[in-house]
């Protein structure tokens, strides 16, 4: 499903109206009616519903919703946060239709905010149809005061398209927006749903199809899609009955140090649990002793990663190489990074400390002809692009796309709603995971899954998207089974991987 920006959604609407010939009033009717059909599964006939309407297209949707509610004998009350004369275009058209059908509008300019507050004290639901994707900047009076009052009320709020006041593209903002319990977004998910702080305001999101033609949606598509369970199932490789270990990859994990042995253990075990055929580990002697008891299926390859004369031959045995979890920061680590960039002949995955020195070698990165995969969290991404973490979080989509295209890499920008970006700039947003993953070591687990999957999948982008999806899904299974998020460890996620895979792709009987 395509995720769109404010500009993308506007392009979709323009194409549907100007090129296809669908009138704005018809699109508004479709939107309001589709929202109404969904509301029927939420609202009861005995409940009182208030629809708060602005003067733009979002308000026009509100008039259509109110009319259909009224026609089906719901108890509905309409308040307009604008003077009647301020309503124009398609919004004014549907206001007149609503009133001709017997609807009554209360105008904030006539009755005042106190009267509105008194009215919604008896409502069970507020339908927020104040401001839509066209709104920019902080809401102005009286919208600002109405939004503040709505948030202080005890009434459940259902927002139309997006919570009023929230910028459709997300990013940093400091003004107040509606805090919805549910958001019924029109036709396509909006970028704001997948960035913070905006995502905090949406509540549970449902995408409502309003009948815009696919050709119009294509016009506004910007190469960003949600990655869903259907995508995982479609692209996950099936194992042949005749399969042997060599069919599922021979991987190398360069990880761990005397100070951080656990990272190597987590990444190695995750790779094994994700279906790697054969896995070797290059690490320190002290870590080997620990791994020998914690990941008995792994092998060891003790070659010197910094030795230019032999590293190429040593690396040639492997289908893919991962470098970084727990290796620490030293001159030797930086030299290892250089050798890997120069000599790895297959996919090279860089994570954690393997990314620390990469900023010093971006030209080497750009010149690599073999695939390179990076898995930074926002802090590591900030170092790579020379910006602050806040700047990264404010432009997750844009920064990821520019970096991936500029350096020709596959990029996984971790965090809530992890973004996976291909070298051509195409992006996918992950739809699994929860705050239980916000604990040390879960990034190492993801590295192991990614290494395993890039050796098993037909395409690298399927491998990356599926690895991120499985990582989050395993955490979701844990939370469901434990009925809580606190106290879950990275090793628990590894333990859950086989069950998660079994749920996603059960074995054919």
Automatic annotation (TrEMBL):
Extract one GO molecular function annotation from the record. metal ion binding
Q: Print the organism lineage.
A: Bacteria, Bacillati, Bacillota, Bacilli, Bacillales
Q: Which InterPro entries match?
A: Carbohydrate_kinase_pred_CS, CARKD, Nnr, Ribokinase-like, YjeF_N_dom, YjeF_N_dom_sf
- Hey, which family's this protein in? In the N-terminal section; belongs to the NnrE/AIBP family. In the C-terminal section; belongs to the NnrD/CARKD family.
Query: What does the UniProt function comment say about this protein?
Result: Catalyzes the dehydration of the S-form of NAD(P)HX at the expense of ADP, which is converted to AMP. Together with NAD(P)HX epimerase, which catalyzes the epimerization of the S- and R-forms, the enzyme allows the repair of both epimers of NAD(P)HX, a damaged form of NAD(P)H that is a result of enzymatic or heat-dependent hydration.
Q: Where is the YjeF N-terminal domain?
A: 9-218
GO-annotated biological processes: metabolite repair; nicotinamide nucleotide metabolic process
Cofactor binding description: Binds 1 potassium ion per subunit.
Q: Which CDD domains match?
A: YXKO-related
Q: Give the protein name, as stated in the record.
A: Bifunctional NAD(P)H-hydrate repair enzyme
Keywords (A to Z) from UniProt = ATP-binding, Isomerase, Lyase, Metal-binding, Multifunctional enzyme, NAD, NADP, Nucleotide-binding, Potassium
The entry marks the following residues as binding AMP, namely 414-418, 443
* UniProt cross-references to PANTHER family, sorted A to Z: ATP-DEPENDENT (S)-NAD(P)H-HYDRATE DEHYDRATASE (PTHR12592:SF0), ATP-DEPENDENT (S)-NAD(P)H-HYDRATE DEHYDRATASE FAMILY MEMBER (PTHR12592)
Domain YjeF C-terminal, residue spans: 228-504
What Enzyme Commission number(s) apply to this enzyme?
4.2.1.136, 5.1.99.6
| Subunit structure and binding partners | Homotetramer.
Q: Which residues bind K(+)?
A: 58, 128, 164
Q: Which reaction does it catalyse?
A: (6R)-NADHX = (6S)-NADHX; (6S)-NADPHX + ADP = AMP + phosphate + NADPH + H(+); (6R)-NADPHX = (6S)-NADPHX; (6S)-NADHX + ADP = AMP + phosphate + NADH + H(+)
The cofactor named in the record is: K(+); Mg(2+)
Q: Which Pfam families match?
A: Carb_kinase, YjeF_N
Q: From what superkingdom does this record's organism come? A: Bacteria
Binding positions ((6S)-NADPHX)? 57-61, 132-138, 143, 161, 263, 326, 377, 444
The UniProt entry, under SUPFAM superfamilies, shows: Ribokinase-like (SSF53613), YjeF N-terminal domain-like (SSF64153)
Keyword Isomerase in annotation: yes
């Amino acid at each position: 499903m395509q995720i769109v920006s404010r500009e993308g959604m506007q392009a979709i609407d323009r194409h549907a109206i100007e090129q296809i010939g669908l009138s704005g009033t018809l699109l508004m009717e479709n939107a309001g009616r589709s929202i109404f059909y969904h509301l029927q599964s939420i609202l009861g006939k005995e409940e009182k519903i208030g629809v708060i309407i602005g003067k733009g297209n979002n308000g026009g949707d509100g008039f259509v919703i109110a009319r259909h509610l009224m026609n089906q004998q719901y108890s509905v009350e309409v308040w307009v946060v604008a003077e009647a004369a301020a309503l124009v275009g398609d919004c004014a058209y549907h206001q007149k239709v609503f009133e001709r059908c017997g609807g009554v509008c209360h105008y904030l300019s006539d009755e005042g905010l106190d009267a509105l507050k008194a009215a919604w004290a008896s409502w069970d639901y507020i339908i927020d149809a104040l401001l839509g994707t066209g709104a920019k900047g902080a809401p102005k009076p009286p919208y600002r005061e109405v939004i503040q009052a709505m948030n202080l009320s005890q009434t459940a709020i259902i927002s139309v398209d997006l919570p009023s006041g929230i910028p459709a593209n997300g990013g940093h903002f400091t003004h107040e927006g509606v805090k919805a319990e549910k958001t019924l977004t029109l036709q396509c998910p909006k970028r704001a749903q997948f960035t913070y702080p905006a995502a905090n305001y949406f509540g549970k999101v449902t995408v409502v199809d309003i009948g815009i033609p696919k050709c119009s949606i294509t016009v506004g598509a910007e190469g960003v899609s949600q990655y869903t369970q259907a995508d995982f199932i479609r692209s996950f490789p099936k194992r042949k009955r005749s399969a042997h270990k060599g069919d599922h990859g021979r991987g190398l994990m360069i990880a761990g140090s005397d100070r951080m042995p656990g990272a190597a253990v987590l990444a190695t075990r995750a790779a094994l649990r994700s279906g790697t055929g054969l896995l070797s580990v290059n690490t320190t002697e002290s870590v080997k002793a620990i791994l020998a008891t914690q990941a008995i299926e792994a092998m060891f390859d003790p070659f010197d990663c910094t030795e230019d004369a032999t590293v190429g031959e040593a690396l040639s045995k492997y289908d893919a190489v991962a470098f970084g979890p727990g290796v620490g920061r030293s001159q030797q680590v930086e030299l290892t990074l250089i050798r890997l960039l120069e000599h790895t002949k297959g996919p090279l995955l860089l994570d954690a400390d393997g990314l620390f020195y990469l900023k010093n070698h971006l030209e080497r990165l750009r010149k690599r002809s073999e695939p390179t995969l990076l898995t930074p969290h926002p802090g590591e991404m900030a170092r790579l692009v020379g910006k602050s973490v806040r700047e990264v979080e404010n432009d997750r989509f844009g920064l990821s796309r520019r970096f991936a295209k500029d350096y020709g890499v596959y990029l996984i920008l971790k965090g809530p709603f992890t973004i996976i970006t291909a070298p051509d700039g195409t992006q996918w947003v992950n739809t699994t995971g929860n705050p239980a993953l916000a604990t040390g070591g879960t990034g190492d687990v993801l590295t192991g899954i990614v290494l395993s999957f890039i050796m098993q999948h037909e395409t690298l982008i399927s491998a990356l998207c599926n690895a991120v999806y499985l990582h989050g899904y395993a955490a979701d299974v844990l939370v469901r089974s434990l009925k809580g998020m606190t106290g879950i460890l990275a090793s628990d996620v590894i333990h859950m991987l086989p069950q998660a895979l079994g749920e996603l792709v059960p074995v054919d009987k």
